[in-house]
Amino acid sequence: MAMGKYSRVDGRRPSNYCSTVTIVVFVAFCLVGVWMLMSSSVVPVQNAELSSKENTSNGKRTVNRSVSKQFEDSSGALQEDETKQDVNDLPRKEYGNAVEDNQEEKIIKESTEENVEFQNQAEENQEENRFKDISGERNESQEEPKTEDENDRNGNGEDEQLKVGDRESNSEAKETEKDGGMSKDEQTESEERSGENKFGSSESENSSEEEQSADETQQSAENNGGSQEKDQNSNEIFPSGAQSEILSESTTQTGAWSTQAAESQNEKMNQQSSKSEVQNGYRWKLCNATAGPDYIPCLDNWQAIRKLTSTKHYEHRERHCPDEAPTCLVPLPEGYKRSVKWPKSREKIWYYNVPHTKLAEVKGHQNWVKFTGEYLTFPGGGTQFKNGALHYIDFIQKSVPEIAWGKRSHVILDVGCGVASFGGYLFERDVLAMSFAPKDEHEAQVQFALERGIPAILSVMGTKRLPFPSSVFDLVHCARCRVPWHIEGGKLLLELNRVLRPGGYFVWSATPVYQKLPEDVGIWQEMSRLTKSMCWKRVSITKDKLNAVGAAIYQKPTSNECYDKRARNEPPLCEESDDPNAAWNVPLQACLHRVPIDESERGSHWPEQWPQRLTNPPYWLNSQVGVYGKSAPEDFAADYTHWKTIVSKSYLNGMGIDWSSVRNVMDMKAVYGGFAAALKDLKVWVMNIVPIDSPDTLPIIYERGLFGMYHDWCESF
Fold this sequence. Notes:
Helix content: 25-40%
Largest sheet: 7 strands, mixed
Number of helices: 28
Radius of gyration: 47 Å
Distance between the termini: 78 Å
Number of strands: 15
């Protein structure tokens, strides 16, 4: 409120009137003083309302100049009715009118209150130290030089040298401004709260030499019980021109520090801007490839394929991943529909999901696939089993009963699978088949298999090892798989020997077995020589009269005795340094790996029969430490228990998954295969992936009757 200069107004009251009033008010003051002393302990706030009243009377010359000077620069809080009309809420052009209106209201105050406050000074000096300590603690630790902007707003920048109290008050206000960053509405509310504390005027009276008024914006931020005071003159309260413009535009940019509110707001804006750039600046594109929906980055990399110096070993069918993984979306085929559910999908799929008819034209007579209206249908036939896969499967077991589908033989490899009908019908015999074929002129035959709900991957017997560990498949099957096993020292057949379990079977159903054409006879002779030198035992040659085909079945040895007795070391034994389990991008070699014979080595014994092998730790884990730090058997059991609990309580019941519509699942980091084992009772199959930079636990997965492969997740699958 207006003070100081506005309190020095000419004109005096009659002396006898002043004396009378002084005596009367003195008595009243004594009563008030006693009450203030009693209540001061619970009113730790300061208020200059009384001080304001004494300085608003017209004709305050009754006090001598020294007393007038003492009150000249003291600060006081706005009264409640005055605070409600905050200066910041007024237009700049109305500042002057607001000053005059307020001044007129204040002038009508009686000068008797001035005398009351003056005489009250002596008694309230006792309270001075306590109030100064309350507000001074912050001032002593936070005192800073007053900036030129602040001097201008207080109207004291050029009039006189700052007093100690002025610096302390302004420093306190500045600190509050930095910490609080209050808006104008908040300042007004703070002033109103301060104005209601009517009994804190002693500090403003007794420390006027030390605490000058700060600008209105800074002082209103003191909402913790500190000084809530106004400047003495209208220039200090209502700055005009450039000063008022600065106040109106910003109250948080003065000083060397920004406020938390400003910093947080800027960060929010930056984050929103970043999100907007991501959302608006980049959109996922469809892959621009001639393969369209059949695009596979590592198999359709024509830049790399064109640079190949030779393709006679099917190098062009192998993986050639681009240096930079593509960041595009492979489009869906036009007209794509939700896949037909298993087991109906084994017999038919939507044509528009895999819109290729060439295979139906070429292989339709062999009952591979037929085009029927909006469906592609699969009668269950194949090149070697035109009359159905189930009959052919039973024919194999009759030829060698020890195969024992679903018991002894549970995990098999089907080479050159076509549309994977063989593997699809092996589910009827509780057998899990890993089927693979290349991406060749038959157009997406593996895509047909996957759409049918049958496990299959794209791969080729070329120049590199298959992405599987050694000695993991119970049986390997090839039905007219078009692989020249006998050439180049039997390199390709030796790769099958690597992945076939000791004592496992190789089923070869091809024309050289049962036809007498010169070419077939030549191949048969070469295969007979090769298999004998590899110590494979031919256990059966049988003809299937229904399908007019035959099959030769071989068994891998379970010891190294035959290898050591060979007259010629052809094919040679692999070097001891050659790791048979190394399979990621390792070139093929025409050599034989010795059979493990140590009782603690994997491969020295046949696994337990299915399904016992699923839940029991493999015998060869006893001497190893598990992935999680315990002994391997404990790790294995704990992992299985963990996944059984998670699957039963979350995946099957708590995640909202309709498992009747789920057929194939991929575990991208399978470890022991516990997740797949926990899904055993569902009609799903799980592709267990062991990343190449993770512990090599894939042999354990195969040992328990599951399957999977190695993969580098920096490349496409």
